């Protein structure tokens, strides 16, 4: 009888480390969500919620968003800076902004604006379409709007005109050519623009996105260009319009040391520009505040600091240099999008099937009439024990290679090769069982676990829902959302629905070593029961970066608020239909249906299809066009 329990599952999957108090496992073995964090306030059983959503006709895969978690994250970051201000005696203000490129979903941005209104949370846009979104949703005169990215005349004029609506819109110069456009637009509308300079720091960040910082970064002004820009503003009598200095060292910076180094250089830029007469009021330290995706404190998917330490370092570094130079403390702008929204969404999907390579029983015994390789494999199976496991492992490896060669040379028939493969996995299964109970066989166990790991076929698309897992090797927490009081006795990798060999997840959190492992411990699939997994911390970038590989579109999504009485569904956003996805690549529904209908008419004339079969084909075709792009359970 296994003595496994939900606490062991929590340790195995590391949920206490990466869950940030929002996610934990209850005594029923289900993942629970607590938006207040650290068991503060009401919570919700994620498995029971999934069942309720399915009963409502919402389909898996489902993206479940918890806006209450966003509220907690907004309040946390604000409180961290307020605490740092009090501790260090900092005289400026904190002006957080959310970069909407991280996730531009309408309901999400609306929730951020609502939760951040009293805390003066602003928005950042990096393109003309994003500026139009920000101006439509941002209604606070106390919060700043930061305009980044490449800009044309229309972008700049729209931003300047928004100041006449009372918006605190700051146009950041990312290329030196933009400064003349800003000056011309300001003259055209008789307006004193709010201007920011983005500096290219020599200091580089760290992690997967390190190339977005440093002297060779895509955006920003060199030292020479900044000095030239100061001279231009002086000539135009607009030096007081330069209100903000901006710099950025990359996204998901894993090390606080990289952040400290960039802050020191950025603060020097600020002090020098102030001394040159610029009307600076803000310093924008950009993004970079990381999220602990794996809870290890090591590697690119983790961080070695927390939110309070980040705030303390930003505040103390700026204060020290400003006090040294006798300069008033600037208001601090951060663009911490990932840290605000990553935790709030979970992708839930079901398992469609399993490719199981374990062979508890060998095939029929080999005889003296069988080829020697078959007799050799039979001998290995019979003689293996803990004392000769190393010898048998080497013999098995050699036998596998010989089997392939003999089949290629025509010595083995297809049936004989199939027997050899079956016996190989039977030996490997028996050998792994022995290795687990034998000291000093870790290397053998590792190889055999990889050989025998199951493939779980999953109802989602990696490319659509977790593209960073494929594109940059981002490590996301993945685990079952139920049956966590049972020991997960299988090990497997996850394969998605796409017909692409890269459509898989095969790197998982190893909470015991602080690194990653190649397989996920997972449960057996029970016949007649659905089995659900969740990918957590998917709120930043994943939906926006998702693509249409194999024409798998957006999933169903729900916004769920949790209260003492239970929960409410605030918004339901249906996933793409097949018709909608096909329209993105210029296919028209009516034309497609008409083409198939004409083909059925031709088939009826040729007696290759009956009228009833043609009717059924058209029915299935039209229903398919109206349906979900993912696999659906048949209606009972």
Describe the 3D structure.
There is one protein chain. The chain is of the alpha/beta class and 636 residues long. The protein has 4 domains: 6-57, no CATH class; 67-345, Alpha-Beta Barrel (TIM Barrel), CATH 3.20.20.10; 372-451, Methane Monooxygenase Hydroxylase, Chain G, domain 1 (Up-down Bundle); 589-626. 42% of the residues lie in helices and 17% in strands. Strands 4, 13, 14, 15, 16, 17, 20, 21, 22 and 23 form a 10-stranded mixed sheet that branches. Strands 5-6-7-8-9-10-11-12 form an 8-stranded parallel beta barrel, surrounded by 6 helices. The chain has a 3-stranded antiparallel sheet with strand order 1-2-3. α9 links the parallel β9 and β10. α4 runs parallel beside α11 and α7 (153-163) packs across α8. The radius of gyration is 30 Å and the shape is globular. The two termini are 37 Å apart.
How would you concisely characterize the structure shown here?
This protein is α/β, with parallel strands linked by helices and 636 residues long.
